[in-house]
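Internal ticket - ligand job 223, NAP:
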Amino acid sequence: MSQVRVHNFSISLDGFGTGEGQSLEEPFGHAGQRLHEWFFGTRTFRRMHGEGGGGGVGVDDALAGTWATDIGAEIMGRNKFGPQRGPWTDEDWQGWWGDNPPFHTPVFVLTHHPRPSLTMKGGTTFHFVDASPADALAMAREAANGLDVRIGGGPSVVRDFLAADLIDHLHVSIVPIVLGRGVRLWDGLEGLEQRFTTECVTTPSGVTHLTFTRRGPHSSPRP
Ligand SMILES: NC(=O)c1ccc[n+]([C@@H]2O[C@H](COP(=O)([O-])OP(=O)(O)OC[C@H]3O[C@@H](n4cnc5c(N)ncnc54)[C@H](OP(=O)(O)O)[C@@H]3O)[C@@H](O)[C@H]2O)c1
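stdout (structure tokens):
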């Protein structure tokens, strides 16, 4: 069975995966870029965004670099895809990532406001689906053709997949900042650690990387 994985998911010390007040200018709201500064310096990030060579190859990069290995599809929330809310007023928006997004696989965007699929350069196709986490995962699994499925965020979607017990591997990067407001990752997930083996490493950038690896069989039926 293919794995369901979360990678490089950055949260503040107080558990926020994004700030408040997302807008076109500020995709992470008042958090700005602070949640991901550790990531910007890595070779993985530079390659992901076509910035050529360079970038750090230390422990942050070693952890960040596995995000695309054996991934055949991603599932993301509508707020990761864009800052719009409610029904689409136009369908010109194609995501934050330009005409060649870094995913290079089918991407299932969860939304209560579906729209036609978008085929981008480089193998990324955005499919907009109104579905439960389990049903979205079944679609992504089929599209992934035996490879793993990444849950790409934001915090609401990762939280929902954790609550539904659908995640096998979770990599969280705890950044030493206090955001105070935004969208929290851990709410409602009391006792989550009991389902996983956890490991942690702190890197010179000041980030603590935590990995949660599923211990046993899933508690809920899987497609
Ligand atoms: N910290 C990180 O590493 C990281 C990673 C990725 C993204 N982010 C950030 O996280 C923020 C977005 O996170 P978020 O928690 O606000 O939102 P999100 O998880 O991206 O999306 C939530 C939205 O997706 C739609 N949705 C979710 N589940 C659904 C379902 N089962 N069926 C139908 N629609 C569903 C709903 O939108 P509608 O009802 O409007 O359709 C819901 O409001 C952005 O600022 C992004 O930049 C952070």
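Auto-summary: The chain has a mean pLDDT of 95. The longest strand covers residues 4-12.
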